[in-house]
Each structure stands twice: as structure tokens, then as C-alpha cells.
Design a protein that fits this description.
- The complex is a heterodimer.
- Chain A is mainly alpha-helical.
- In chain B, 35% of the residues lie in helices and 27% in strands.
- Classes of the chains: A mainly alpha, B alpha+beta.
- At the A-B interface, helix 6, helix 7 and helix 8 of A face helix 1, helix 2, strand 3 and strand 4 of B.
Amino acid sequence: MWIKKLTTPASDPGALSFVLRLTAIIILLRPMGPWWISFLLLGIAVSTLIFPRILHAPATWYVLALLVAGRIIEDWPLADNHIYLLAYWCLAIGLALGSGNVITVLGRSSRLLVGLAFLFAVIWKGVLSPDYLDGRFFRVTYLTDPRFENLTTVVGNFTIDQLAEAREYLKPPSDGALPRLHNTPSFTALVYFSTWWTILIEALCAFFFLVPFRGRFGIARHVLLLTFCVTTYALAPVLGLGLILLTMGLASVDPENHLLRTTYFTAWLLVLAYYMIPWVGFVIDGVGYQWFATAP
Amino acid sequence: MIDEPISSTTRFAAWRVWLPAVLMSAVAIVQIVLAATTNISPWKGGGFGLFSTLDGKLERRVRIFVESPGRSEELEIAPSQKILAERARLFPSDSMLLSLAQAVSRHETEFGRPIDAVTVEVRRTEFSSELAVTDRPLRTLSWNVDQETYNSR
């Protein structure tokens, strides 16, 4: 209620504009490509936020899709997967805006794109990768990837020295100087949980987004996607992918479902906060480190 | 309603729904085929193989060796060659490795250190199920500067 008191009806962009503007903001948050692509992307994205006619023009989104595709081609294969997803998403928006039933076309497109992204992710993890299901992937990644250092020390109960020792052990080539790789029960549990939780929730997201469920099962897909984003991106700092998935998820919500739309937007802001705020570091520097340091 | 059956929209609108999904599937399938038949990193190429396997940036490295009369050494990657080196690291095809080798040759010539040959090697670190670490060359290309020929393995 207090939001309505602080704002005016004219500031309500509507369900469709809301999704389009969030997409433009994603482009603004992560400038990409060579200077001319980056400039054009930023210029068009800013224009969409200022001029509603540009925001709702199919041509705007076709051009954005082409520019993002240009960024992918320009230094192929360096672009991350979310850049590809952004290109498909801009194309989907352009196609939907040019149709007679924008909300339905965009909602269905977004559902397919989210479902396929998860489907391919599950195929890679469960079928194509030789080192995912046996836990090797997370075990090595948590020990060697600096982005997970805080997680490994806080949840995996590794000390900084033990982590440094493990990294030395895992450096090529192994010289055999270290008798064994340090491990903790907490770390084993973390690896096991990460491995199976990730593939399970991704498989469920793929299933519920690709099958055109309605009613309660239709709501379940949103609960799954929100759970995935809120849990995964707290640990894996992949801002672009998280924001695009949530924006596409939002586009597949019934415009009348204000609660779900608000939840999506809150999750969107939360994923942004995860990226901007080193919250695990706060835990280490604050009570968490003291607790773990004194834990048996 | 968003979840109405597709038959409730026009046929034209259905085409608009499916095009991005078909494009995405095609790119992902090409990436899966490339990963199976070449050495592209599963993390890259639009196939959504990120966070699935130990074959990303951290597990691969590029080494550059140059040779000339009285000189045989390994070089650091120059800042101007970073992007070429990244591309070669994640997709060590002959063309990617050759582009890097030629850039190294040009760079050395510009700085008054002409060379006869450049070898670019992409190595990958692998981990056994017991986490024993091995390091092997994924692909190597040697560029003969004078003859403008190369061989790779």
C-alpha cells in the first residue's frame, strides 16, 4: 500500500513494459563487445527507457539482437552463454512485438527458452561430462576457482592455509610432494549437495518450463526457477545469466498475478545484490568466521 | 492467458514463438558436436555446458615458443595478443592457433627480434577420479615464418 502512496499511476509501466525495461537494464548493466557495438547497445537501451515508442518497436529489438549476435561473432567463442541467451531473448521480444498477441507470444517464447537453457545444461552435466556426476567438478572447482574461496572456507570448513595447500596439490603437474589432498566432512557434504542439487533443480526447471502445464503445475515452474536463482546465484557469481533467466521467467507470468511478478522482481534485485555485495566475505569477517574458528 | 494452447494463437504467431527456440537449439547442438569432434571448451559456444566439466579457462593454458638463430625460448603472452590467446585456449583449432602464431611473429619483428619459427601449444590439466593431476598437450601448431607453412598435431 505504501508503494501506491509514494508513486503515481502514470509511473506504472504495465507488465510488458516492465519486462522490456528490465531487459534494457540488463544490457546497460553489462556493456559488451567492441566500442561500436557497445556504444550502439548502450545508446539504444537508454533510448528504450526514455522513449516508450522505441521501447515497443519490434525493430528496436531486432537491432539489439543483431548487435548482441555481432558481439558473439566478433570474438567467437569467447562470449559467455548468457550473451547467446540475450540475443535469442531480444529476437523473441522483437517477434512478439510484431505479432497480434504480444503477451502470449512472449510468454511462450520465454518458457521455451528457459526450458531449453536448462535442458542443455542438464544434458551437459548428466550425459556429456565425464567428471560431473562423480563430484569431481565441484570438488576441484571449489578448491581452485577463486570465486568460491569464501564458500569453501565458510561452508567447507577449510582454513586459508589448507586451501592454499590444496591448490598447490592440484596444480599441474602433480609432483607428489604432498602426501594427500586435505578434506573435511563439511566439504564432502558441500560437494555432494552442490552436485546433486544443481542437476536436480535444473532438470525440474527444464521439465516444468518445457511442458505447457497450467494451474498449480504452472505456478510450480516459477517456484522452481525462483528457487534456482535465489540459491544458485548466492554462490555462483554469474550476474548476467541470473538476471536474464529471471526476466524471461517474469515474462511467462500471467500479467494479473501481481504477487508472482513482485516476487520475480524481488529475486531480480536479490541476484543483483548477490553480485554487488560480498556477503560471504561479511560472514567470514563477522560472526561466521569466529563461529567456524571455534567450532569443533 | 500466457499458457493457452498454441492453437489459440494464429499460425503466424506460432512461428514467432518457435523461431528463437529453434535457433537456440541449433546453436547448442552445433556446440555439442564441436565439443565432441574438436577441442572447443564445453563452457563456450552457446551449448550451456558451463559449470558442468573441468575443461574451462582454469584448466587450459597457452604456451608460446619462438626460435631463431641463437635464440630458443618461451615467451609471455603480450597484452596485444591476449584475445587471440584466449580464443586459441578455448578453441584450439588450426586457424585460431595460426592467428596467434602469426601475431607473435609480427610482434617480434616489430620489436627488432625476427624469428624463424613459432610454436603455439595449448595444454589441458586433467583430474582422475582420485584427483591425480596430469597435464597434456591438447593441440600444438608450429609456424615456419620464412616458408609461411605450418604443421599441427
